[in-house]
Structure formats: C-alpha cells, structure tokens
C-alpha cells in the first residue's frame, strides 16, 4: 500500500511538473485552446461539399413557356443563382473562364417545339470542371430537377425509389466532417506536443537531470504521456461541444464510449509522438518528423475522401494509421450511436499502435545512443 | 599614437523591466573612457551590468540616457557604422555547429569583407595561434569547449578591427585554452596596437590588463591600473598555515565564518590566504587562528576586488555558518570506498574518450576531476552518474552499478549539471517540489526540507528559475541536488560562470557537506578550487595523468617549478602530451 | 564597399544556409521525400470516385419482375451487391458498418408495379454523406433505367410524351476525374509546406542558439540575412515543383493547358510568399516551440481546408470566404487550377500574381523588421 502510494506520488510529481510547464506561459495556454476553437468554427463552416450556391448563366434561344418553367424550377431551389443571361454562344466561354458561372444552361431554339410535339428535347448543360466534385454535384442537381420536370410532363418510370438516409437525414457533409475533426484537430496538436516534450528537455539539458533521479522509464513515460493525453482530450472536448451546441449536430451514442474511444486514440497518438521525441536529436528534428507523419495520417484517414475509394495497397497501409480508426470510431459513435460491440474491432489497431509505441518510447528514453 | 579615447561613456543609464514587473537599473549613471591601444578589463560579480554595457557598446542595446561614443561615433544613432568597424565576441559565441572550422572562418571573413589576398595569411596566423590548423575540416559542434572558444575568437579576429570587445571569453574554458586565448589577445595588442575591452571573472586575467574597471549593481566602483587598485589591500593580506594533519579547507572555513574579522579566505598551495578587516588589529586574529602560524604576504588584485565587493555588499552574500549545512547520517566505516572505478573504458566509434581509468573515492571525501576541455572528464562523469553506459570495465557507485541498478540506487545520489538544467519557466518552489517528489519526498517531510533549503540557500520561492542571476541558479541547482540528502553529490563544473563571491559561498557549503559525511565528486576549471579537494585526478585524452592529494600533485611537478595548482596542471598536461607525441612518433 | 560588400555577404550567408540545410538529413527528408509521398498519395490515394459500393439487397419479392428490377446492380463496376433474406440481417450489417446502403424490395413490389408503380426503399448510411449521395444517384439511375424498360414492356406509352434530355459537357475536366484537380492543388500544398516546415524554425533557432548576436555585430544587414535564408529553400522548392510538374504530365497525365513558363513563374512567386511567411513566423515568435505550432496551424491546415483546394469556396459562408481570401494559398489555388485546366487567362494571372507579389513584399519587409539588429526586445 505504502509502496503503491509512493509510486503514485512520484508519478504525480512528474505529471504536475509537466502540466505546470504547459500552462504557466500565457502564450502556451492560448495555444492549447484557441486554435482548437478557431479551427472547429472555421472548418465547420468552410469544409463542406454541400452545394449552397451555384452561380449559373443561361443562354435561352427558345424563350418559350417550357424553358421558362424549367428555369423557374432551377431558381426555385435556392441553390442556383442566375448571374448572367447570355445572348450568344460566343459569350459562353467568357463566363466560365472567368469563374463567373459554374454552370451554363443552353436551351436551343427548337426546344419549345420539341416539347410541344412530345419529342425528346435536348438541353445543353456546360459545367466548369476545375473542381470536379462540385461540378459533379451540380450536374446531378440539374438532372434531378430535369427528372422532376419530366415527371410533370407525364413521364413515369414503373419503379419509384424512395430513399431515406440513416444517421444523417439530409446528407449534410458537415455532419460527416465535424466528428472527424474531433479526432484530426486534436491529433495534430497532441502529436506535436508529445514529440516536442522530450526533445525540448534534451535540448535544454533537463532530461539528464531527470534521468539521474530514481524515476523508472515507466514513470517517466506515464509522466510525459498523461499531460499530452489530457490536452488531447481537452481539445476534443472543445470541438465536441462546438459541434453539439453550436452546429447542433445530434449526438446519438454514449458519451462514455466516445471518451473511451478518444482516450484510446489519443494514447496511441501520444505513443507515436513520444517515440518521435525519443528519437529526435533536437526540437527541429522532432518537428520535421512530426510533419512527415501528420501529412500521410491526414490524407489516409478518410477525413477528406473515403478510405474505401483508395487502392487496395494504400487501404492496407491505413491500418497503421490511428487517425483512420479514430475518425471512424468517433463518427460511428457520434452519428450512428454505435455500441461497443459494433466498433470493438476499431480498438484493435489503436491499441496495437499504443502497445508498440509506448514501451518503445520508454526504452528509447534511456537507451538512445548519445 | 592616437590619444583620442576609443570609447567615451558619459552618465550612461539603462534599465530593464525585471521579472517582477519592476524596473531596475542595469547600468546606473556610469561614466568612463577607454584608451586606444590598451587592454581594458571590466570586472564585477553577476548582475553588475558588464554584459549590458558591452552590448550597448556593440550597438545591440539602446541606452536610456547619457551618451556613448565608440570610435568617435554615437552608437545609438549609427549602430551599423560602429558594427562595421568593431569585432565582438558575445558570451555564447554564435558558431554554426554544423559548419566546419574553415567554413565558420570563411563566413565571418566574407561578412567582414576581408579581401581574398589577405585571407590566406590571416587564416594561417589565426589557425596557428589557436592551434586549430589540424581541425579545419571538423564541424564546430564536434570541438571541445576550449577549442570552440578559440575558434570563436578566431572568427571575431578574421580582420583587424578598430576595437575588439570580448564578453567573458574564458567562461568554461580550461587553463590551457585560457592561456592560449590570452596569448592571442596579448599578441594582437602588442603587434597591432589593438584596443580591447574584455569582461572577466578571473582576477589573474584582469591583472594582465592595463586598466581594470570594477562594477557592481550597475555602478562603477573603481577604475585604474591593477597596480593602483591593488594598493587598497596593502597591509591587510596574510597567509596562514594549518596545523599538521588538518586540511587547509578546515582552517579556511573557520576563517570565513568570522566575517567580523576576516574579509576573505581561500585555501592555496596547502595554506590559507586571508584578508583581515582594516578596522580590526592583528591581536584579535589570534582568536580565530588559534595555533595556526601566519605571516603577511604581498597583496593581489583579487584581494582588492574582494574588499571592494564586500564593502558594497555589506554582509549580503556572506556565507551562512556551517552549522546549518545538512548533516547526513553516515552509515558504515569512514574509509569504505563508495565509488569504485576499475579499468573503465568508453569508446565512441573508433574514438576512445576514456581509456582504462581506475580510481576509488571514499566516504566523505571531496574528489576533484580535472582536465582540459575534451579530456574525457565529462564522459567519465556521465558514466559515474549512470547517464552513459561504459564500453567495458567495472563501475560501482554506492555499492551498485547506477546504469543497471534499480531506481532506488539513483535515489542516493545528487547531480548538479554543468548547464543550468532545471525548468526555467517554473518557480523556485515548483522546481524544488518537483525534484523532491521525484525522490519520493512528500507531505510534511517535503515541506520541511524545502523550507530548510530555501533558508539555507537564501532563495526566493516565488522567483522564476529561468531568469535568476547565474549565482542564484547555481544555488537552486545545489538546493535541488541536496533536497533528498544524498550520500554522494556529483557536481559538473558547478562554478563556471559565477563570480568569486558566489564561489566562496558555494565552497563553504561543499566543505560543510563533506564534513557531514557526504561524498563529493566535482569537476572544475578553476584550478585554485582544486585546493578544496581531498584528492584530485587529472585526465587528458582519456588517460589518467595524476591522482592524489593537491599537495602530491603539486609535488609531482616540483621539478618544473610549478608553484600553484594552475601551473602544476598546465605542466602535467603538457608533459602528458609530450610523452604521447614521443610514443606516437616512435611507432 | 556597398554593392560589392552586399553581394559578398549575401553569397557567404547563402552558402552557409545551404550547407546547414544539406547537413541536417531531416531537412532533406521533409524537403524532398515528403513531396514524393504526397505526389503518390494525391495521385493514387485520394479519390471521390466511388467504386464497388456495398449495397445490401433485401428481396422479399421473389418474382421475375422484382429480380429484373434490381438486375442493374449486378455486373456494374459501381456496385458490389450483397443479398440477404431479411431486413433485420441487413440492418445489422448497416449497424456494423459492413454495408453502405440497403435496397429493400417489398413483398408486394411486383403487384404494385403491375398496377403502375412499384416502390422500393433505399436506406443509406449517411455518415459518409458524399458517398451516400453518390450511391443514391447510382441506384436510382440503375433502377429507373430498368424501370423504364420494364414500363415499355408493360405497355406504358412512352412515345408521345415529351422528355427533356440533358446533354452534359464538363469543361476543363470532361472525364470528371478527381486527379485532375487534386494534382494542381498538390503543387499549392507542397509549396506551402516547404515554407511552413522548413523555414519556420530558421530564425527561431538562431535566436535560441545565440548565433544571431555574433552576426549582428558585423557589417551584415537584415535584408541580407532574410534573402540568404530564402535562397536554399527556393532551390528545394524549385526541385519539388519540377517533380510535381513532371509527375502531373507523365504519371497522372493531367492536361496543362496554360503555358509552362506562366505556371513556373507563378509557382515560384507563391513559393517565395510561403517561405517568407515561414520566416516571418520564425522571426516573430523567436522560439522553436511556438514557431512550430504556429507554422502548422497557420499554413498547412488552412491551405488544405480553406483555400478552395477540396472544398469549393462558393459553398462557404461569406465570413469564411473573407478569411479564405486573406490566405495567399487561396489566390494561388484558383490561379494554378485555371492554368492547368483552363489555360492562360490573363486577367486572372495578372490579378493573382499582383496579390502574391504584394504578400511577398509585405512579408519580407516584416521579417526584416523582426530581424532589426537589436536585443532590446529580448532582454
């Protein structure tokens, strides 16, 4: 009992010291909270695939009732905004080149007659493909409007697809992005914090002082890991609260499970960070190695593009990426309300990373060649 | 010769905002002039304002008021025109550690616009004087501390400046390199009539200068030639010999603990040198000297300096009486060795840093590890502390091998590193609390120990550690190293960069600790400090050159006529190097 | 003294920076290896193109009509359909994240279809909203084609009813390949990270190691220090640019409609902005810890998330657009995409280059200001 208390007291001394060095400097305190807050808001609004504003131009050479009706439907969406009404096909290139319009709808002069005659009436849609995903979304938007117009003309397919979306009824990309940001944004700073922690002590000479004390490598490891994990969880909480109360995305899962997942994820990231830190000769190297890892972690995480769209080989690589499982787990708990049983598999790679990197870091603290 | 002064300082003031938010004067109404073609030393304890003054001369800081003319130019108005003409070597010279010696030289030659045709001659001369010619391809980071400092000087001197400013060039530099550095400076003064301003903590260096200016707390205390300054101590300086069988440091401790009678006392060459207070007459000295015989000796610059400082400081900074030093419960016999080193070897690749070294340290002993920079002391030291594994050999500290021993074994040693290695952004109390916790102290015990430490070392618990003056940083480092009452204390150049006053206080604590049974292992570049040790070892090129009491080591070089430790050290190292060269040539 | 002194010093300092850069391997790893990794990841790894969508089909109606209705899912590269018997089973798959969508064909489907309109239900996993919308489009497309054929067979008169058909043309990227817009964006990202990661510690490190104090008391001018620090990394950036352009042309075969020299010149201009931003962060923070955090937060993440690289700025609230247009990356992003896919559109080129030049000048001037030769602020 006494030994146990002694042990905890020592670890506490180290944790306490680490926390103090982190929060004493007002600039540091700001750095721990403000970026998470700012980024959650900026990217919450900024990182969206949803079309909200499609500027379009019209070249209506038929000027009949049919074309007016169709364009009215387009305008009625609230997403399409007419920015120009063209008079000749010569003007067409200009509006797209200058990025004034994303879409140009060109209605041929015989459009009205063809519709009236019950024939197929071609409608030309020209898209600015410089951002292929926006162009694709705009195209399917236009075709759904045209399809409903066709229905109104009496064109009926014999099959109606009634679709309903689970977990995200309006298919808003923010719902997908924001829970992913909980994991990604906290990863960046925790990884960096952990990576710099030992490197900084080495550079300032305090690490030797630490090594001559009776701390065991395990104690140093816990002392170094706990504050970084807490910072990671703090940042996750800030983002989580913004999502819940500012963006009002409903949380379906258990908060406890969410924190269990975040804790596991953050521990794995801190393990990687501390391993970098133990290897790096100085702060500059620690930082560069961190960057070197953060980029692939982010890109191969499924935050921006789904993991399943990647080639097989790269998909295999993502198993070593804690962020992939961090994002996936958080999204599923948050949006799907997944239970522990549903996501148990995701814990395996995260725990594996933690189990490999943490002891490695502890070993490296003392055994790294001078 | 040109008789216009190189630097004219009039009523100069510069204040900084302290860590507590209050302004304090770093330079307080100082007026002085520096003559051309002369060596001028700025001396004074930490926080005297030397560095601030030097930085103002170099145009790096702007004065608050008063005027400062360098080479006839108003520095504050035209810093660049001054910087174009002077050479300046800051305390930490900015060598690029990843560049080689030659590349560092080339860089500074280019920056100073030294014409190509002059370079060859100048570089050869500089490399020759600094003895770096063999290492031109080596990265500066791989040089020893002394060589780095010489390279820094060489880089500053790639061209002949109108004024050379050196800020504490010899801090952390061994006696040989220090001698070399001064040789270079002296030579340039003699041959090129160079004007030099140098700040230093070594009085023997100040003594070489034509002019010495003493500062304390931003004020100018005295200004004159070493000869005139020395006069102040005339008739008050003595040497006392300790009775047979007692170490000189015990007599020294007795003397320095009587500040009412004695201004200063230091062990030297087996005896104790001291200065009496002017107002006290000789008979009263008997009280404290008891049966120790003493006789007057000629005064030195250091004596005058100590007197000046003590006068201004009053009793502040004086050492606490020895009674308060922590006494350690000593277990076991007195003569039992607590450190055993046998055939210790450490190699880095094919470079042998420490070659087959053996020694023992017994309980309660003060053991000094001396040697030039890069001699392998630090490597030996780091192995003893368990920071570095030995390549081969036997190593035992407090009965265990620290590297492999469980953490508790490390709990019995204390360690004070060379650089300040505590957490700079934590307060004094927070640092103490952390290291106390690290050694398993908590609750009431921890509180009491911290309170005792703060008292003993006169520390302000709420001060931020990183911005303490060097002397106080050193006290804090000592306080942390001693908090858990270790059996063995390792001190790696603890006194480098701190002033004589603080050094006296430091050694008073050390001798008290040793008396209480703590074993002390210490490295230092101040050879006179070796006099405090029971035994010393001198290392060079990884080999042990001498081992024994200071007396024995001095006697080893008696033939070469070495009087003090400094010359004995130089003689031993040079002898060792000569033998190595012979051995190398004969192969 | 003046101009010749300037060049000698500049050359000397540049040589010094170059050597320091070359001697630290971590610099080269980030400067040269990371771009290669990014080129490969962006070129091959990132894609919005959904293939083999996991659709679980619950066919409660075993009739030929029902089978025919969902036949379109099979044999398509877009779908990897899984057949299960009950809805419970399917919902479990969805819960376990083993399927992206459930297509439910109720027992009375064929009866309803015979009566005119058969209804099927499509349940999507909305967590990945982009994939979900894509699948929705695919499935309704596939089913309505089948439905149309079926309807014809059942005798629905399709003749005589007018229908509008879309003739779609996507300019600049006819195949709609995401690689085409990822790769130009990649150039922006690589140029950004060279600046952010490599230069952001340069000045901070010299402050911390005390090397600046010695340099200050020489004839060196702040501008020389700044220019010398920019030079070697400009070279690294140029190598990276060459790698990006070569891989764009030969590996990914992304069209480059604009002239090469305009692409190169504008990229180098942006590189300069990005390096100067890194240096400015370094000079302003004076400590490596803060500088590295700032660099990561201020350059790379915004360049990826807010520059219009992946997320179209048109969909973003006005305030956020305002923030985006403060970023130099946004201006370069729109320019480089135009140059690659649309060609030399001079008004765009001139406007963006003017903005970038302004940034470069302001940042370099500000960095020089931070390197004023004084220690007054630090002590």
Task: List strands and helices in order, with pairings.
The complex is a heterotrimer of chains A (370), B (587) and C (379).
Chain A lengths: L1 H23 L1 H21 L7 E7 L4 H12 L3 E6 L6 H6 L5 E5 L3 H6 L3 E9 L3 H21 L6 E8 L6 H32 L1 H6 L5 H30 L8 H25 L3 H17 L12 H6 L4 H15 L3 H28 L3
Parallel strand pairs in A: 1-2, 1-3
Antiparallel strand pairs in A: 3-4
Helix pairs in contact in A: 1-9, 2-7, 2-9, 7-9, 7-10, 7-11, 7-13, 9-10, 9-14, 10-11, 10-13, 10-14, 13-14
Chain B lengths: L6 E11 L5 E12 L4 E5 L6 H8 L7 E6 L2 E2 L4 H5 L2 E4 L11 H11 L4 H15 L14 H12 L6 E5 L7 H18 L3 E5 L2 H5 L3 E6 L2 E6 L1 H5 L6 E4 L7 H9 L5 E7 L2 E6 L5 H8 L4 E3 L4 H13 L23 E12 L2 E12 L3 E5 L6 H8 L7 E6 L9 H4 L2 E4 L11 H11 L4 H15 L12 H13 L5 E5 L7 H16 L3 E5 L11 E6 L2 E6 L1 H7 L8 H22 L1
Parallel strand pairs in B: 3-8, 3-9, 6-7, 7-8, 17-21, 17-22, 19-20, 20-21
Antiparallel strand pairs in B: 1-2, 1-4, 4-5, 9-10, 11-13, 11-14, 12-13, 15-16, 15-18, 22-23
Chain C lengths: L1 H22 L1 H21 L9 E5 L4 H7 L11 E3 L2 H9 L5 E5 L3 H6 L3 E8 L3 H25 L9 E9 L6 H22 L2 H8 L1 H6 L5 H30 L8 H26 L2 H18 L12 H9 L1 H14 L4 H25 L9
Parallel strand pairs in C: 1-2, 1-3
Antiparallel strand pairs in C: 3-4
Helix pairs in contact in C: 1-10, 2-7, 2-10, 3-6, 7-10, 7-11, 7-12, 7-14, 8-11, 10-11, 10-15, 11-12, 11-14, 11-15, 14-15
Overview of this structure, please?
The complex is a heterotrimer of chains A (370), B (587) and C (379). With 370 residues, chain A is α/β, with parallel strands linked by helices. Chain A folds into 2 domains: 2-47 and 172-367, no CATH class; 54-152, abc type-2 transporter like domain (abc type-2 transporter like fold, 3-Layer(aba) Sandwich). Chain A is built from 14 helices and 5 strands. In chain A, strands 2-1-3-4 form a 4-stranded mixed beta sheet. By secondary structure, chain B is an alpha/beta fold. Helices cover 35% and strands 24% of the residues of chain B. In chain B, β4 (65-70) and β5 (73-74) form a beta hairpin. In chain B, α14 packs across α15 and α14 packs parallel to α16 (470-482). The radius of gyration of chain B is 24 Å and the shape is globular. A 4-stranded mixed beta sheet of chain C has the order 2-1-3-4, with helices on both faces. With 379 residues, chain C is an alpha/beta fold. Chain C is 65% helix and 8% strand. Chain C folds into 2 domains: 2-47 and 177-370; 55-149, abc type-2 transporter like domain (abc type-2 transporter like fold, 3-Layer(aba) Sandwich), CATH 3.40.1710. The two termini of chain C are 33 Å apart. In chain C, β1 (55-59), α3 (64-70) and β2 (82-84) form a beta-alpha-beta unit. Chains in contact: A-B, A-C, B-C. At the A-C interface, α2, α5, β4, α6 and β5 of A face α2, β4, α6, β5 and α7 of C. β4 (120-128) of chain A pairs parallel with β5 of chain C, so a sheet runs across the interface.
């Amino acid at each position: 009992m006494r030994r146990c208390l002694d042990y905890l007291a020592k670890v506490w001394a180290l944790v306490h010291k680490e926390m103090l060095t982190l929060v004493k400097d007002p600039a540091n305190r700001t750095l721990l909270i403000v970026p998470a807050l700012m980024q959650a808001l900026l990217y919450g609004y900024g990182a969206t695939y949803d079309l909200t504003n499609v500027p379009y131009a019209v070249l209506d050479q038929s000027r009949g009732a049919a074309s007016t009706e169709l364009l009215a439907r387009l305008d009625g969406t609230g997403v399409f905004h007419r920015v120009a009404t063209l008079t000749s096909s010569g003007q067409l290139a200009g509006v797209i080149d200058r990025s004034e319009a994303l879409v140009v709808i060109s209605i041929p002069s015989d459009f009205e007659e063809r519709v009236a005659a019950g024939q197929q009436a071609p409608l030309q849609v020209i898209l600015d493909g410089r951002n292929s995903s926006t162009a694709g979304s705009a195209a399917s938007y236009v075709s759904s409007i045209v399809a409903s117009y066709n229905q109104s003309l009496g064109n009926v397919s014999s099959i109606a697809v009634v679709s309903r979306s689970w977990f995200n009824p309006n298919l808003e990309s923010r719902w997908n992005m924001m829970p992913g940001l909980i994991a990604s944004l906290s990863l960046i700073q925790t990884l960096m914090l952990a990576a710099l922690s030992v490197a900084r002590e080495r550079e300032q000479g305090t690490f030797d002082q630490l090594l001559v004390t009776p701390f065991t490598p395990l104690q140093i490891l816990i002392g170094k890991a706990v504050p970084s994990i807490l910072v990671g969880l703090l940042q996750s909480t800030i983002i989580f609260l913004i999502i819940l109360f500012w963006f009002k995305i409903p949380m379906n899962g258990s908060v406890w499970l969410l924190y269990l997942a975040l804790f596991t994820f953050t521990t794995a990231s801190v393990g990687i960070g501390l391993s970098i830190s133990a290897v790096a000769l100085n702060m500059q190297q620690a930082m560069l190695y961190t960057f070197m890892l953060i980029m692939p972690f982010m890109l191969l995480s499924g935050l921006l593009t789904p993991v399943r769209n990647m080639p097989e080989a790269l998909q295999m690589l993502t198993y070593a990426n804690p962020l992939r499982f961090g994002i996936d787990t958080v999204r599923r708990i948050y949006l799907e309300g997944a239970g522990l049983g549903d996501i148990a598999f995701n814990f395996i790679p995260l725990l594996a990373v933690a189990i490999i990197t943490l002891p490695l870091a502890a070993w490296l603290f003392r055994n790294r060649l001078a | 010769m040109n008789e216009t002064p190189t630097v004219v300082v009039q009523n100069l003031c510069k204040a900084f905002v302290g860590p507590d938010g209050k302004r304090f004067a770093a330079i307080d109404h100082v007026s002085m002039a520096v003559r051309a073609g002369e060596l001028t030393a700025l001396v004074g304890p930490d926080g005297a304002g030397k560095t601030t003054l030097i930085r103002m001369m170099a145009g790096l800081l702007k004065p608050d008021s008063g005027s400062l003319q360098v080479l006839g130019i108003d520095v504050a108005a035209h810093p660049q025109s001054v910087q174009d003409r002077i050479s300046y070597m800051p305390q930490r010279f900015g060598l690029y550690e990843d560049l080689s010696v030659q590349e560092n030289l080339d860089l500074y030659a280019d920056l100073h616009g030294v014409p190509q045709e002059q370079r060859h001659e100048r570089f050869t001369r500089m490399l020759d004087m600094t003895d770096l010619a063999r290492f031109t391809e080596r990265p500066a980071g791989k040089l020893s501390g002394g060589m780095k400092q010489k390279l820094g000087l060489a880089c500053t001197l790639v061209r002949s400046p109108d004024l050379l400013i050196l800020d504490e060039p010899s801090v952390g530099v061994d006696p040989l390199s220090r001698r070399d550095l001064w040789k270079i400076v002296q030579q340039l003064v003699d041959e090129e009539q160079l004007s030099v301003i140098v700040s230093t903590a070594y009085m023997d260096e100040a003594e070489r200068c034509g002019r010495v200016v003493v500062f304390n707390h931003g004020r100018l205390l005295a200004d004159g030639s070493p000869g005139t300054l020395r006069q102040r101590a005339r008739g008050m300086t003595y040497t006392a010999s300790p009775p047979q069988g007692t170490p000189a440091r015990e007599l020294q401790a007795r003397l320095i603990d009587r500040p009412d009678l004695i201004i200063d006392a230091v062990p030297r060459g087996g005896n104790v040198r001291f200065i009496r207070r002017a107002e006290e007459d000789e008979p009263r000295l008997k009280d404290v000297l008891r049966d120790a015989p003493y006789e007057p000796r000629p005064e030195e610059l250091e004596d005058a300096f100590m007197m000046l400082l003590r006068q201004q400081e009053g009793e502040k900074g004086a050492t606490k009486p020895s009674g308060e030093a922590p006494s350690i419960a000593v277990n076991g016999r007195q003569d039992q060795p607590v450190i055993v080193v046998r055939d210790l070897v450490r190699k880095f690749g094919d470079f042998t840093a420490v070659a087959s070294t053996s020694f023992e340290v017994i309980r309660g002993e003060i053991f000094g590890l001396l040697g030039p920079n890069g001699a392998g002391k630090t490597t030996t030291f780091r192995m003893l502390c368990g920071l570095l594994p030995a390549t081969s050999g036997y190593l035992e500290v407090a009965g265990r091998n620290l590297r492999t021993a469980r953490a508790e074994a490390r709990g019995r040693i204390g360690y004070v590193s060379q650089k300040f290695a505590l957490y700079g952004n934590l307060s004094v109390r927070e640092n103490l609390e952390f290291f106390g916790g690290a050694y398993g102290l908590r609750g009431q015990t921890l509180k009491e120990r911290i309170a005792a430490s703060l008292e003993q070392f006169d520390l302000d618990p709420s001060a931020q550690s990183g911005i303490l003056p060097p002397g106080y940083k050193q006290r804090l480092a000592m306080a942390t190293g001693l908090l858990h009452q270790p059996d063995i204390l390792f001190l790696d150049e603890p006194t480098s960069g701190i002033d004589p006053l603080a050094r006296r206080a430091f050694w008073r604590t050390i001798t008290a600790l040793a008396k209480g049974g703590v074993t002390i292992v210490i490295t230092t570049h101040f050879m006179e400090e070796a006099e405090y040790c029971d035994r010393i070892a001198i290392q060079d090129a990884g080999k042990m050159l001498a081992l024994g009491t200071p007396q024995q080591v001095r006697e080893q070089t008696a033939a070469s006529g070495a009087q003090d430790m400094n010359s004995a050290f130089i003689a031993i190292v040079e002898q060792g190097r000569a033998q190595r060269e012979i051995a190398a040539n004969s192969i | 003294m003046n101009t010749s002194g300037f060049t000698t010093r500049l050359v000397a300092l540049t040589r010094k920076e170059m050597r320091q850069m070359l001697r630290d391997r971590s610099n080269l790893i980030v400067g040269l290896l990371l771009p290669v990794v990014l080129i490969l990841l962006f070129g091959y790894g990132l894609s919005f193109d959904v293939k083999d969508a996991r659709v679980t089909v619950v066919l409660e109606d075993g009739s030929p009509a029902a089978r025919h209705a969902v036949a379109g899912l099979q044999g398509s590269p877009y779908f990897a359909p899984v057949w299960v018997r009950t809805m419970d089973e399917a919902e479990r798959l969805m819960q376990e994240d083993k399927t992206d969508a459930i297509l439910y064909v109720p027992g009375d489907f064929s009866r309803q279809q015979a009566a005119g309109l058969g209804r099927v239900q499509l349940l999507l996993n909305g967590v990945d909203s982009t994939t979900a919308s894509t699948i929705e489009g695919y499935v309704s497309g596939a089913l309505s084609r089948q439905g149309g054929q079926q309807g014809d067979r059942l005798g629905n008169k399709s003749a005589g009813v007018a229908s509008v058909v879309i003739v779609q043309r996507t300019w600049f990227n006819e195949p709609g390949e995401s690689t085409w817009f990822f790769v130009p964006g990649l150039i922006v990202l690589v140029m950004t990270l060279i600046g952010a990661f490599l230069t952001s510690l340069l000045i901070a490190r010299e402050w911390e190691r005390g090397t600046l104090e010695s340099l200050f008391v020489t004839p060196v001018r702040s501008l020389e220090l700044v220019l010398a620090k920019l030079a070697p990394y400009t070279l690294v950036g140029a190598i990276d640019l060459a790698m990006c352009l070569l891989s764009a042309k030969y590996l990914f075969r992304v069209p480059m409609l604009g002239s090469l020299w305009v692409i190169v010149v504008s990229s180098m201009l942006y590189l300069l902005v990005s390096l100067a931003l890194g240096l400015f962060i370094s000079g302003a923070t004076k400590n490596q810890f803060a500088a590295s955090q700032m660099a990561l937060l201020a350059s790379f993440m915004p360049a990826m998330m807010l520059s219009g690289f992946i997320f179209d700025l048109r969909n973003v609230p006005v305030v956020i657009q305002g923030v985006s247009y403060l970023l130099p990356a946004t201006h370069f992003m729109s320019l480089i995409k135009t140059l690659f896919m649309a060609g030399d559109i001079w008004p765009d080129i001139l406007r963006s280059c003017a903005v970038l030049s302004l940034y470069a000048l302001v940042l370099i001037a500000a960095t020089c200001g931070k390197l004023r030769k004084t220690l007054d602020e630090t002590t």
